[in-house]
Structure formats: C-alpha cells, structure tokens
Proteasome regulatory subunit C-terminal-domain-containing protein
Amino acid sequence: MPGKTPDKEPVENGGYRGGKDIDMKDNDLKPKGKKSVKDGDDEMTVVVPPSKAAQKQSSAPPPNDADGDVAMDDVDKADEGDVKVDPVVQAISDIKSNFALLERAVVLFDARFSLRALRSISSLRKRLTPEILAQVISETYSTSSSSSHVAKQLLAAIGQSEMPLGRSWAPEMEIDSEPKAPAKNGAKKESSKENKDVIPEIDVFLGILTQVLLYDNKQFRQGFEHSRYLSDRIQSLNRRSLDSLSAKVYFYYSLFAEQLKPLPPSPQSPIVSIRPTLLAALRTAVLRKDIDTQASVIVLLLRNYLLTSHIAQADLLVSHTQFPENAANNQVARFLYYLGRIRAIQLRYTEAHEHLTAATRKAPSSACALGFSQTATKLLLVVELLMGDIPDRATFRQPTMELSLKPYFLLVQAVRVGNLEDFETAIADHADTFRRDGTYTLILRLRQNVIKTGIRMMSLSYSRISLRDICIRLHLGSEESAEYIVAKAIRDGVIEATLDRERGFMKSKEVGDVYATREPGEAFHDRIRACLALHDESVKAMRFPMNQHRLELKNAQEAREREREMAKEIQDGDLDEDDLGGEFEGM
C-alpha cells in the first residue's frame, strides 16, 4: 500500500517482508507473538526464550538483595517454628483456665462447672511439677491479698517457700517470642488487679493439685499434713460451691492415711485417727444436704472399717445412714461393692450377690476403672460359688479379665466337679493372690460346698451308692463323716435322696423336668426386675432446666390474655376478619 512502508505490511506466515526475523526477539515478550505462531514454522520456536527471560527477570532481584531476602525467609520460617508453645507455659495456662470455671460456678451457683475443673486434673497431673504449681500460686496471689497465708501454706507443702508472691513471668521463660505476648501482658495487668481477692474455691482447687502432686511423688507424710490443713479450712467455710471440691479433698486425705505406717489392719494405723474427722464431715454434709461429700465420705468410712476388719461398725454405719440417691455413678458403684463385701462376710450371700451384680453393671467401662471391675468380679465369683451356683464360662473369656481371673477359674473347675483334692491344690498354689484380693477367708468356706457339689454329682450319676465309695471319692476321713455330710445335704435340699444307715448306702430319687418347676420363672423375674431398676435409675438421673415450668406457665398466661383482648375487640367491632388475616385458603 502506498501509505505504509513495506516493512510493516503483515504476511500470512506472521513474519515481515525482508525476512528480518531478528526483530521478533523484542516482540516475543508480547502475548501476540505466541498467538501468531503456527506449527509449521520452524523459526518461530524462539518463543521459548521469553520464558527464560522471564525467569531471569524473576531471579534477578535475589542477586541484588539476595542476603536480605534469604534472611527474611529464614525469619519467617523461624517465626512459624516458634509458634509451638512451651509445655511449661501451656501447663500453667491450662491450670489458670480452670479459675474461670470456678468463678462461674460461684456466680451461677452451678456445680457442673466445678466438676469440669475437677475432670481436668487427670490431664494436668501428668505435666504437674513443683515449679509449675509454685509459678501458678505466685501469679495468682499477691502479698496484699487476704489469702496470702493460704498461698504460703501451699508453697510450703510443695517445698517452694522461697517463691515470692505476686511474681510475674521470669525472663528465662521467653514468653515474648510468642505473637500474642501483648495480649498476655494486658491480661496479666488485669489479673494483678484481681489478685487482691481470690475466692476460696480457687484456694481449695490449688490445694487439691498440691495433694495430687504429693501423692504422685510419694510424699505421703507431707500430703497427710497438708490434707489435714485443707479439711480444717473446708470445715470453717460454709459455701455450697465447695461441695464437689471438698469431696475430692477427703478422698485424698484417706489415701494418704492408708499409705502411712503402720499399715492397716494394724489398730495403730493413721486411718483410725481420721475417723472422727470423716464422721464430722458426714454430719455436716447431711445437715447441709451436700450430696457429693456425703456419698464420698460414706464410701471412705466403709473402706476404712473394712481395712481394719471392723465389720460390725461398718454394718452400723450402713443401717444408720442413707446413701444419697442422686450420687455420682462411680460413688454408687463403690458403695454397692463395699456393701456386698459386708453382706458376704455376714453370710448373707443373696443380698451380697445382688449388690455385687449391680456394682459390676455400674462400673465404668473405661480402661482407668479396669481394676475396680476386676476386683468386684472376683468377689462376685466367690459369692456365686458360696451360693451353690457355677459362674458362666464367658466371664473368664473376656480379654480384660482372662489373666487376672485365672486362679479363680481353676477354683471354679474344682468346685464344679466336686474334686476336693484339686480344690485344696488351687488354694495352696494361689493363696497369696487370694489374700491380696481379700477373698481368702471366703474361699476357705467353699470346702463344704465342694463336698456338697461332689455329693450332688454322685446323686445324679448313681441311683444307689455306698457311703464307703462316697468317702473314697471325696477324700473324707471316715464313713461316719460321709454319713453326716450326706444327711445335712438332704436336709438343706441340696440333693433329693434317702439315706439307709443300716445297709450303708444313699438312694437317689428320680429328678423331674426343671421346666415344670418355678425356677425358670424366678430367673426370668430377676432379669425383668434388674431391667426395671435400671430404667428407674436412668429416669432419676435425667436433668432438666431449672424453672422451665414457670416460663411455660408465663407464656401460656400471655397467650390467654391476647386471646381475651382479641375476643373483646371483635365483640366491640374494632376488628373484623380482614384484620385477622381473612380465611385460610389452605385449610
């Protein structure tokens, strides 16, 4: 064209006239150059260098300021790594977070917040050290606080008396490296103002943490003295918000007393000296309707009496007190276990079986409560054998019970067959285990049951058997003793047979169908009764919002008043159907 130079005229191949492809290097940076490239043009493969140029441009700044950029990247990575909180700082923060729960429990008068604080102790005790607890006490209290004497007592109990009160974070903690340090510093300023008045619930909670620390470190003497101080302080305070906390204090108080020498069942054991304190706490809890402390102290007293073999006093305590119905499930399970042990010692095996069965059903299913389940099951097996029943084999096949119940499995095998020799061998081999479990004296009573079981097996196997054969099979001393044992078994209803003393043999009666008797119906009735009892307890354990019925009544009254006003306005002619919305077409 005449108005344009020939170099600027486009060609179909995307080049310029004159073949000056070198100019395309400058235009390759433009996006149009990539769009105009065709697959058939070999020369246009030079579009790749722009990516290299772009890479050079992107990599050009690092050489100019390479040191600075690299250092900033390292700082960013280091900052990301420093976000990890120090475990000491985290433990202190977790302990202090429970103070807000205790304050809410006091303000709202709701014990559930206190229980949440107590449940956190299981996770805190693994990280608890004297230094951490001393740091928390030092930051919580100040020298001008009215509870400063409590703080000094707590510090003395854990051996940190030199720690000053009102102390802030030490520089070696390096808390300033965290991004939220200003907020924490501000929070410390606010907390320093609040340190002047510390509620007693926080005092007792820190005292419980001190008890836990001393018990884990096996400082039983210091823990016993500290627990005595805490119990006296709780007795002097009359606050309903301390109910759940005081129950925990008495629990550890009893544990410390059990570990001090002389150990029970010695009458000089320290557990005897704490009985007046526990009885006084029980009287106070009953008067104040403190359910948590009442349930806990009753269980502790029963355990105290059983450790020293004071069965009569334990029975008097049960008969003169009433265990609270709304107690925690764990306390109910413990109470039923101790009650079942008392009834078993008193030869009241039917009641003992009922209490122990309920205790095993109420036992927590968590791994931390496995020891209680095993102990209750061992006593239940012995009681079943004393009642003349044979435990189910499935009980011994449970993975969590198989190893601990092995001595009792051998015992059950000997009783089931009626082999007196195997029974005595099992007792001799595992006597230490039975003594440690507290079932040795009850197992010694099983000798007569073994003999009765053997006689029952022989009565079912033989229609007539001589007393001499009975004496040989049961390893008895003489035929006269075999005669007395058989006569007693017939009188007790263990076997259905007759005894011919002149000829010296026992003749069995024909056994009818067991389903024609009332035994299956009674067993079915027992199961139904257990299910109904569980249903009733579940209904009692349900919680409902307080004063909800009053809110419903208020809403109902307001609705009635609105209906009366509308009816009055309709009668006066102030409202018609259009004002009320007319007819509903969808109705």
The longest strand covers residues 497-500. Residues 548-572 form the longest helix (25 residues). The chain has a mean pLDDT of 78.
